[in-house]
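We were asked to recover a plausible sequence for a given structure. The inputs and outputs are reproduced exactly as logged, with field labels preserved.

PROBLEM: sequence recovery
POSITIONS: 281
GIVEN STRUCTURE:
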């Protein structure tokens, strides 16, 4: 059951309400003037989920402080200015993101192509394998395996023999000896093993020197391809430029309307604010 209020209490409430007229000073009035539009009428519509709403609200508050709108119509024009600027900035970010994505994809594509050595490895094409970092890494692994076989097994597998035959000249007698196909003295076998291990050590040094050169070459190619991808294709560029142009026109139109409305309010002119400034298309 609702509590009954006496006539005396009602009269006291009315007197208190008349006295509660809000801030009296200029500072106090300025502090609360935007409470009704604290977050901007269009904030929910213009700010995307992945964007920073607080940043948009700071933009709107800064514009309101700078442009000092009076009344709902001027406040709406300030909101239009903030909204348009926010969308214009989004187009700039979209352009940068599109370029960055294109450059990253171009780099990935280059790295993938530089890492394709299946055919060269299958054919044991030493000259082509030495042209890429990945190929040189694979040759280094092959020679490590050959050295391990010599130290542990005392002879070489057919796979290792095939790699040695692919890029370097070895006598059939030496290779047969390393296969274990011929009988040689222990001293001769030891001398042959040391000879091959020395050859492997020198070749590995050569691979390391070559890798530094190839790494620099691949980095240059990657940078060049990435730089080329930094230019948007015509259709994407035209779409972004058209959108930016539309936002620019809306931005300047809203500013012009606000300025005319404020001049009219101050009695400086009688211009019709409904007629926006024309801009070249």
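RECOVERED SEQUENCE:
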């Amino acid at each position: 059951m609702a509590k009954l209020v006496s006539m005396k209490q009602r009269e006291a409430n009315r007197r208190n309400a008349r006295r509660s007229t809000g801030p009296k000073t200029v500072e106090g009035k300025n502090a609360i003037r935007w409470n009704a539009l604290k977050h901007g009428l269009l904030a929910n519509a213009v700010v995307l989920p992945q964007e920073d709403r607080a940043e948009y609200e700071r933009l709107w508050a800064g514009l309101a402080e700078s442009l000092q709108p009076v009344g709902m119509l001027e406040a709406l024009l300030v909101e239009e200015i903030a909204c348009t600027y926010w969308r214009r900035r989004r187009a700039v970010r979209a352009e940068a993101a599109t370029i960055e994505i294109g450059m990253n994809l171009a780099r990935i594509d280059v790295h993938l192509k530089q890492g394709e050595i299946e055919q060269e490895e299958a054919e044991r094409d030493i000259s082509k394998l030495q042209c890429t970092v990945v190929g040189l890494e694979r040759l280094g692994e092959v020679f490590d395996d050959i050295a391990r076989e010599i130290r542990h097994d005392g002879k070489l597998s057919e796979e290792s023999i095939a790699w040695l035959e692919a890029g370097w000249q070895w006598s059939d007698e030496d290779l047969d000896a390393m296969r274990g196909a011929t009988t040689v003295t222990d001293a001769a076998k030891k001398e042959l093993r040391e000879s091959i291990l020395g050859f492997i050590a020198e070749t590995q040094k050569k691979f390391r020197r070559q890798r530094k050169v190839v790494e620099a070459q691949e980095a240059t190619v990657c940078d060049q391809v990435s730089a080329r991808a930094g230019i948007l294709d015509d259709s994407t560029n035209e779409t972004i430029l058209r959108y930016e142009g539309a936002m620019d026109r809306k931005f300047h139109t809203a500013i012009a309307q606000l300025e005319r409305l404020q001049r009219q309010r101050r009695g400086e002119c009688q211009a019709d604010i409904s007629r926006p400034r024309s801009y070249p298309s």
